[in-house]
Specification:
The protein is α/β, with parallel strands linked by helices and 320 residues long. Helices cover 36% and strands 14% of the residues. It has helices spanning 4-9, 26-34, 49-62, 81-90, 104-111, 124-133, 154-162, 178-186, 208-216, 237-242, 290-313; strands at 15-17, 39-42, 68-73, 95-99, 116-121, 137-141, 168-172, 191-194, 222-225, 233-236. Helix 2 (26-34) runs parallel beside helix 3 (49-62), helix 3 packs parallel to helix 4 and helix 8 packs across helix 11 (290-313).
């Protein structure tokens, strides 16, 4: 099985790019892998299982052995997930991420060829369930994350999970600066999970207006609602306004109405018209190539480490 510590050491920056519905496709994943981080995409972004198999072949050939990840949405409304899993197994995808449900059969299938399986969790209870199911790592989705975010502080969520879990732990939630990557590690995570920052890149398959709105928005422009998919998530205020809705007076949706990928709860389709984003987009001020963004994060990460070293040297960061 792929060693999780070896996986972390293979990266030039301790970052996994979050798989983003409709946005993360082979071009973006390949650019992320070539930049030295783990690129990821939801399998449902491929319009068919046949297309998914073509994508996996393209990515596998292009990344030259660098790790990448496929995200399986295992919610009951996704009737394709088992076929997608078979494609993932056939192509021996190194890292598999599951969301919106636990499936022990995914763990067994991915372990059969030596891959590792991670799972999104928004609280300690779900984390324990995933660990008990045999998952190799957990993605703590804290308040402020893009997509279907939780409500817990990253400090609280990481602390509770680390009290009992010593496996691979990732933090998702408002991370778009190198010092935030380092802060995630200081708080107990092994890797940072970064999504929204990659929307504003040349390789992302997002509308130009979406990219520009990421680059010109801040935390105050994010709205947390369950209207669009039945599950609470974070969205750009500007896209809600453009859809003819009042972001300050949105109705509440029935969680049982969730139908992932259809956006069937309103005439505006999530995530086509209503654009997801986390709260951490303040540092994003331009649309750039993936390599440029990763270089900036890497530089900021190094500067943050140097600052801590200087604080320690001057006695301002006591060590025992």
């Amino acid at each position: 099985m792929l060693d999780t510590s070896e996986l972390a050491r293979s990266l030039t920056l301790p970052v996994v790019a979050a798989p983003m519905f409709l946005i993360s496709k082979p071009r973006l994943v390949i650019a992320q892998a070539r930049a030295g981080i783990i690129g990821a995409f939801p399998t449902l972004n491929a319009r068919s299982v046949a297309s998914l198999r073509e994508w996996l072949a393209e990515i596998g050939e292009s990344v030259a052995g660098a790790p990448y990840a496929a995200n399986l949405i295992v919610h009951r409304s996704n009737t394709r997930w088992e076929e997608d899993l078979a494609a993932v197994v056939d192509h021996r995808v190194p890292v598999v991420i599951t969301s919106l449900g636990l499936r022990s059969e995914v763990v067994g299938a991915v372990h059969s060829y030596g891959g590792i399986v991670l799972h999104d969790v928004i609280n300690n209870r779900f984390a324990r369930k995933a660990a008990d199911t045999g998952y190799d790592g957990l993605i703590a989705v804290a308040a402020g994350a893009g997509g279907h975010a939780g409500t817990l502080s990253p400090f609280a969520l990481l602390s509770e999970i680390r009290q009992w879990f010593d496996g691979l732990l990732l933090l998702s939630g408002a991370i778009a600066h190198g010092r935030s990557v380092l802060a995630a590690q200081a708080a107990g995570a092994d890797l940072a999970y970064v999504g929204s920052a990659f929307i504003a890149t040349d390789e992302a398959d997002a509308a130009d207006a979406y990219k520009e709105q990421i680059a010109t928005s801040a935390a105050a422009d994010i709205v947390y609602t369950n209207l669009f998919t039945g599950v609470h998530g974070n969205y750009l205020r500007g896209s809600i306004v453009a859809a003819g809705l009042d972001p300050d007076n949105l109705p509440v949706s029935d969680p049982s109405a969730m139908n992932f990928g259809s956006g069937g709860n309103t005439e505006a389709k999530a995530w086509r018209d209503i654009w997801g984003s986390g709260q951490g987009i303040g540092p994003i001020d331009a649309v750039v190539p993936v390599a440029t963004l990763v270089d900036r994060l890497r530089r900021e990460y190094a500067e943050a480490r140097q600052r801590l070293a200087e604080l320690t040297a001057h006695g301002l960061l006591p060590v025992q």
